[in-house]
Task: structure prediction
Amino acid sequence: MKTELTAQPKLYIGIDIHKRSWKVHCSTDISAGKSFSMDANPEILHKYVCKHFPGHQVTTAYEAGCCGYYAHRCFKDYGWKSLVVNPADIHRKGKERFTKTDKIDAQLISRELKDGRLESIPIPDKQREQLRSLFRRRNDLVKDYRRIKSLIKMQLLYYRIQVPEEFDNDHWSHKFRQWLDKLNFEHLTGKATLESRMRNFRFVDQELRMVSNQLRAYCRKHYKKDYYLLKSVPGIGGIVACGILSELGDLRRFSNLKHLAGYVGIAPGVHQSGANHKTMGMTPRAHRLMRSYFVEASWQAIRTDPVMQAYYRKHLGKDTKKIIIKIARKLLSRTLAVIKTETPYEIGVVA
Result:
């Protein structure tokens, strides 16, 4: 009697990816499968699957991390379905929360994949991915910039050197920098320390300006329409617009404000049980970098947009942090609207 397959067999591959080696667990729709280690090379896995699981419909998944999306793009080229998942989305039962090995991680990914409980994070194209790397480089430079300024201030405080009142602010003018250069210490080593820090400060300052200019120029050239739409919203300047384009991608992929607010992290947590309903603070799951940028942009928005300013004044007397988060959500709504409608924002006038 001749037998025929009534459905295509399916293969589910969970991978725990590291720099030099992968731990892989393969399971099918009818068997638990097995785990094994291999070199960090997608082609080796492709040859293994072709040899041992010919004719199977293959689905792979691995955790997002430092190894990027190279493996994902290779799997897609092989005709496989591939997911890159948030580690927090992988459900762990009971004792699995207290036992962690590479083998267990690969098995959990394969199991969750087989049960259909995993969703992939958005995968940027290569152009946007490399734009994101430049934006994050700028963020690293901002941290270095603040750090070196703090170190210089710390040295002045340590040696009880009083900063003139005209320079005692966050803005380091050229006159203040010249004043620092002319400072004298009792011994040459103290002067050498300050000079070294000032050289570091000037280098970071120059790099920060250069990278910021490159970011704005690139977005003006390659994402001109969306860049200027975003800049039309009060509070959103060139750098914030670059951050939105690189970190959030095309905002048109978000179906509504709730979807976008949940992704950025400007959304409340909710606890409901029976008749009890409690709204918690902001959800801890967030794109923390962009959330901080939207909060900073909100302070600028209430200075330039009369509607935002009126809303802020209406809630004066309440917790300032809670008010600014409400403003940030409104700013997020305007940001999504200008991209969806492709219409520049017009500053409202309060009658």
